[in-house]
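thought: fold this chain, then report.
action: predict
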Amino acid sequence: MKNYEIMFIVRPTLTEDEIKNVAKKFETILTDNGAKVTNTKDMGQRELAYEIKKFKNGYYFLINLESNDDKAIKEFDRMAGISSDVIRHLITKLED
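observation:
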């Protein structure tokens, strides 16, 4: 099993319910593709270090997961890249 950490930022113009739905949707993408989510953390709204897509703030989420292959990671990366709700994401493979 490989361990990964994913941090993504959701645009701040969404309502609280929409933000939670986006986070839940991306967590579901991971589990549907064979990953096991070990920890999820809502880090709340924070100011960005620099403007991204004309936003100065964003809602940060952190997901830790385990996966046998990179199918779930690739699908998350693909969906986050085309989603207008996610303004930035970072996937990190953790060392054992």
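thought: worth noting. The mean pLDDT is 94.
final: tokens above.
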